[in-house]
From TrEMBL:
<dbReference type="Pfam" id="PF00156">
    <property type="entry name" value="Pribosyltran"/>
</dbReference>
<keyword id="KW-0963">Cytoplasm</keyword>
<dbReference type="GO" id="GO:0016208">
    <property type="term" value="F:AMP binding"/>
</dbReference>
<dbReference type="InterPro" id="IPR000836">
    <property type="entry name" value="PRTase_dom"/>
</dbReference>
<dbReference type="InterPro" id="IPR005764">
    <property type="entry name" value="Ade_phspho_trans"/>
</dbReference>
<comment type="function">
    <text>Catalyzes a salvage reaction resulting in the formation of AMP, that is energically less costly than de novo synthesis.</text>
</comment>
<dbReference type="GO" id="GO:0002055">
    <property type="term" value="F:adenine binding"/>
</dbReference>
<dbReference type="GO" id="GO:0006166">
    <property type="term" value="P:purine ribonucleoside salvage"/>
</dbReference>
<dbReference type="GO" id="GO:0005737">
    <property type="term" value="C:cytoplasm"/>
</dbReference>
<comment type="similarity">
    <text>Belongs to the purine/pyrimidine phosphoribosyltransferase family.</text>
</comment>
<dbReference type="GO" id="GO:0006168">
    <property type="term" value="P:adenine salvage"/>
</dbReference>
<dbReference type="GO" id="GO:0003999">
    <property type="term" value="F:adenine phosphoribosyltransferase activity"/>
</dbReference>
<dbReference type="GO" id="GO:0044209">
    <property type="term" value="P:AMP salvage"/>
</dbReference>
<keyword id="KW-0660">Purine salvage</keyword>
<protein>
    <recommendedName>
        <fullName>adenine phosphoribosyltransferase</fullName>
        <ecNumber>2.4.2.7</ecNumber>
    </recommendedName>
</protein>
<keyword id="KW-0808">Transferase</keyword>
<feature type="domain" description="Phosphoribosyltransferase">
    <location>
        <begin position="45"/>
        <end position="158"/>
    </location>
</feature>
Length: 188
């Protein structure tokens, strides 16, 4: 039954070949969000996983991690903390830079977003190289949070992100994976 639910979400994900550049297949969760049943199943999979865990906050990574993370926080009756792209937050921030295949990027959080010892679940839509998720983990830990788990809708394990996250000792949960079959070329 549980595998059927994971498969329902996986089948709803749109694969867009050669976007944003030739040779890349983009994994788009927009159809999942547009389909009430698929969206409910996705959120329920996360809720069932975390409803008995002791969590204080859900943090979501800009931008699609906001969608899944904020709904999940609501369902779990928890607060939500945004991990934003640089320059988007109005108060004092802490930041973490990371390397992309085409340059560098930086994510930020408000410096008062979490308190020491708070148990936080960090959510994003996709794990590719893991750079964004790793930066989010570092930010939360720098502020004193205990990152209980990192979670994502999609894992692209061949790009190494899930291994890099595991190497930090942070557990990772993903709803589905896409591999390197002909129709499953690496995503952005």
């Amino acid at each position: 039954m549980q595998n059927d639910l994971h498969d329902l979400v996986r089948r709803a994900i749109r694969s867009v070949p050669d976007w944003p550049k030739p040779g890349v297949t983009f994994r788009d969760i927009t159809p999942v969000l547009q389909d009430p049943r698929a969206f409910r199943v996705l959120i329920d999979l996360f809720v069932y996983r975390y409803m008995r865990q002791r969590l204080d906050l859900v943090a979501g990574i800009d931008a699609r991690g906001f969608i899944v993370g904020s709904v999940l926080a609501y369902e779990l009756n928890l607060g939500f903390v945004p991990v934003r792209k640089q320059g988007k937050l109005p108060s004092r921030t802490v930041s973490e830079s990371y390397v992309l295949e085409y340059g560098n990027a930086t994510v930020e959080m408000h410096a008062d977003a979490v308190r020491t010892g708070q148990r936080v679940l960090l959510v994003d839509d996709l794990i590719a190289t893991g750079g964004t998720m790793l930066a989010g983990i570092k930010l939360l830990q720098r502020l004193g949070a205990n990152v209980v788990e990192a979670a994502a809708v999609i894992d692209l394990p061949e790009l190494g992100g899930s291994r890099a996250i595991a190497a930090t000792g942070t557990p990772l949960y993903t709803v589905c994976q896409f591999g390197n079959e002909a129709e499953d070329a690496p995503a952005a």
